[in-house]
Amino acid sequence: MIMNRNLADRLLLLGWRKLLLIPVAWLLCVILHNVIYGLFQSHFDQTAGGDEPFFLLLAVVIIPLYTIACLIYSTVRLGMWWASRSRVS
User: In whole angstroms, what is the distance from residue 52 CA to residue 36 CA?
Assistant: First the structure.
């Protein structure tokens, strides 16, 4: 399945807003992970589960992978734009 270019641009093309949003989302996930673990530590000590690992997984795996994908996509798009611009000149 080929992704629509506008959708891919909206999701993966880096801009100033997204560059600021990525570290804020990472920090929020780390804080939520620590807050949820702190509030429900007795529950997590008695059982093996809960929502606490979800935020850690987001902060450690998902957000960095998304950032790398955005950097690669933005670099390729910039290279394509630069190449098309040099051909026209």
Answer: 6
CA distances (Å), origin 78, targets 17, 32, 41, 44, 57: 18, 35, 47, 46, 30
Q: What is the mean pLDDT of the chain?
A: 85
pLDDT digits (tens, 9 = 90+) for 15-50: 999 999 999 999 999 998 888 888 887 877 777 666
Q: What is the maximal distance between C-alpha atoms in the chain?
A: 68
4 in any annotated domain: no
User: Which amino acid, one-letter code, is at 32?
Assistant: L
CB atoms within 10 A of CB 63: 19
Answer whether residue 47 is part of any domain: yes
Count of all residues that appear for the chain in the document: 89
Q: 60 lies in which domain range?
A: 16-88
Inside any domain, residue 49: yes
